[in-house]
Amino acid sequence: MRKLFFANWKTYLSDTEAETLARSYAERAAAVSADLAIAPGFTALEGVARALEGSSVALGAQDAFWNDEGAHTGEVTPKQLAAIGARFVIVGHSERRALGETDELIARKAAAVAADGMTPVLCVGETAEERDASSQERVVQAQLEAVLGSWTDAPFVVAYEPRWAIGTGRPCEPKDVEAMHAFIRSKLEERNLTARVLYGGSVDPSNLMTYLAVPNVDGVLIGGASTKPAEVLAMLDLLAS
Questions:
Q1: Which residues form the catalytic set?
Q2: How far is CA 73 from the centre of its chain?
Q3: CB 71 within 8 A of CB 53
Q4: pTM metric for this prediction
Q5: pLDDT digit of tens for each residue in the chain (241 aa)?
Q6: Closest by alpha carbon to 166, among 230, 223, 211?
Q7: 48 and 19 in contact (C-beta within 8 Å)?
Q8: In total, how many domains does the chain have?
Q9: Range of the domain at 107
Q10: Looking at residue 224, which CATH number applies to its domain?
């Protein structure tokens, strides 16, 4: 299976900047030996979709509401995202969890995304305090079970992002990534489920290939580095070598 290079772009990118960056991905996609996906901010989705036309780069979204109908001012529904052409939707990102999103809400979002034919990218991971208390497996298992307890055969992706490593420049040690990915894989196997399992957390050109070489790592979820042109090009060049 090809690795998945999933870029979760920061929302401070303007729509014009996002479209320009998307073209850089599209121009290099054919030479890259990995699947590429981009999740820009909501206002940039249509422009990025146009920029990606004719390329193999998949469009994703950073979040979605849990219902397609009703009076929900300010929300973006899975049906709207599917109509734009999104194939992936991130649910349960660490930044959303930090704002108070619960496992129950994330489960509803994942189910709604799948019902509209898209693939949810379920983010799981522990805080620094939970890691220091050696409770990371308990935390991640609870996050997984909340969503996958009644999952059937709809495709999904899991992204392990230790919350203490997001945007901190403090990446998780490869041995710890390997241990958690093996744990996640074992939980999926218990339910006869298969999915790509990505790693996310301060991934950049200096450690990209190290993480991709870790057993049970099927790709990476990249945040800040994926919006810096020099770092993006460096990572795509690594994937093409």
A1: 93, 161
A2: 25
A3: no
A4: 0.96
A5: 899 999 999 888 999 999 999 999 999 999 999 999 999 999 999 999 999 999 999 999 999 999 999 899 999 999 999 999 999 999 999 999 999 999 999 999 999 999 999 999 999 999 999 999 999 999 999 999 999 998 988 999 999 999 988 767 677 999 999 999 999 999 999 999 999 999 999 999 999 999 999 999 999 999 989 999 899 999 999 999 6
A6: 223
A7: yes
A8: 1
A9: 4-240
A10: 3.20.20.70
